[in-house]
Specification:
Helix content: 10-25%
Shape: globular
Largest sheet: 6 strands, antiparallel, barrel
Distance between the termini: 42 Å
Number of strands: 8
Mean pLDDT: 85
Low-confidence stretches: none
Radius of gyration: 18 Å
């Protein structure tokens, strides 16, 4: 896929898979994301993912659109996690991230609520972040599926 096609898919995406590592252990989770101004923006509650991202900001994000077995597009983005702290310097970035999140239905769930062991729910303090791309690649298939003949038994 061309750079423009990759960016177009990123602009349409609402959910991606975010991969990170810590102590040579990979971890991957689905996250709500929005693309603008060359960055992916996201939101999370504190937890394992945020702990790992703070320890090692190198990430990989995969975003797919699948219309069928032979009709799909996939973008893989290698980049760096950057937290957007609640400080004046980051106010406009946090506002942009929040504005972009509003376009995603139920964007705050499940990241903003945690179920405790006693089955009560607490609202977690949010963590806003952006992914700064370092490399973006994409692949797609758009050919109609062809019948594959299976080998005959002998």
């Amino acid at each position: 896929m061309s750079d423009v096609e990759c960016q177009t898919l990123l602009m349409r995406a609402r959910v991606g898979r975010l991969a990170c590592t810590r102590a040579r252990q990979p971890y991957i989770v689905p996250v709500n994301l929005a693309y603008a101004n060359g960055y992916l923006y996201g939101f999370s509650a504190p937890g394992l993912k945020i702990d790992w991202l703070r320890a090692n900001p190198k990430v990989c994000v995969q975003i797919d659109e699948v219309a069928g077995p032979s009709e799909w597009s996939s973008v893989v983005l290698l980049g760096r996690y950057r937290e957007l702290p609640d400080r004046p310097k980051w106010k406009s970035e946090r506002l942009l991230a929040w504005t972009l999140a509003q376009r995603i239905p139920n964007w705050w769930q499940p990241a903003s609520m945690r179920q405790r062991r006693d089955n009560t729910v607490e609202v977690a303090k949010e963590v806003w972040f952006r992914i700064e791309p370092q490399q973006v690649t994409g692949r797609q298939a758009s050919e109609p599926a062809r019948a594959v003949k299976s080998p005959r038994s002998v």
